[in-house]
Amino acid sequence: MRIKVTAVFTVWLVATGLAAPELTAVPPATARPNAAELRRLAWAKGLVPRLAGAGAAARKAALSQITWELRTQPYPTAPLVYQYWLPPLMDHGHYRAVANLAMRGILAAPAYTFAIDRLLVFRIQALAAMHKNAAALRDAKSLFDVCRMQDTGTALLILDQRLDAVYRKHPNIVRRFVLEERSGAKMPSAGGGPIERSRVLASIQVHAGPYLARLKAIHSTGSSALMEKGDLWLLADQPAKALRCFQSMEAYAKTSRQLLLLERFICRAIRAEDGTIGRANAHLLRAIQGATHPQ
């Protein structure tokens, strides 16, 4: 029965346009790296054998170097974590190291949503491999809350898998989740109407401690700090606070393109509030139409 539910869920995601490509370790396209960046990439690749086939001492030393780099140069280092270092650790069964390093990367660069998505997927896979299904489900909810709008479909499929692992003896819970997401994907009319929320997602309590501790360490102000706080609040499953952060960023937007990007951030908070995508999609559609056809 579970195969049928998952298959129906996948077909529905594709039909509604929610299914995103599998989250991969491919970063956004950037300009050709300069000499310093090339040296950094060579260093990153040089650590791979020490993480994969070397002994415990070499692996521990390499992880210590990576941790230091995440502390001193968090944003340049975060993409290296999921590009180069987590795959060999995962392939060689070092699941605890994967889970810990992924969390370090997330906390080091909380405004890098693209990286957070990929780091969380690795962490969820590692937790599942260690049979820590409840923890993997909690992180899957954090992934749904924080991920980019275009990655919603993949996050839903991961949630479906993790719910199945936790509630294998209670398939009605998984079926209810699928039905809630199908119903909640319908965009409400402009005049309003009832909000379709997911009770199944609302019942999942995330492990918010690391994110709340990281929030306390942010003392700076400005757009970047608000972005960091917004993502951390989403990871902690407190979307109302994330929404206020993203709305406050509007004061720093200088172009219509920046304002439209902020609307995507706001939509992520709306999606996390509901546990469904319909109201967030409706908000984004209105924002795009407003930017295309200003009054």
Write a short abstract of this structure.
The chain has helices at 2-16, 35-46, 48-52, 56-72, 74-91, 95-108, 113-129, 133-146, 152-166, 171-184, 199-202, 209-216, 223-235, 239-248, 256-274, 278-292. With 295 residues, the protein is mainly alpha-helical. It is globular and about 60 Å long.
The chain-level mean pLDDT equals 88
Q: Give the SSE order as H and E letters.
A: HHHHHHHHHHHHHHHH
The biggest sheet amounts to: none
The end-to-end distance, rounded to whole angstroms, is: 51 Å
Secondary-structure content class: mainly alpha
Write up this protein:
- The chain has 295 residues and is mostly helical.
- Helices cover 71% and strands 0% of the residues.
- The protein has 16 helices and no strands.
- The chain has helices spanning 2-16, 35-46, 48-52, 56-72, 74-91, 95-108, 113-129, 133-146, 152-166, 171-184, 199-202, 209-216, 223-235, 239-248, 256-274, 278-292.
- Helix 4 runs antiparallel to helix 5 (74-91), helix 8 (133-146) runs antiparallel to helix 13 (223-235) and helix 12 (209-216) packs antiparallel against helix 13.
- The termini are far apart.
- The model is unreliable at 1-5 and 19-29 (pLDDT under 50).
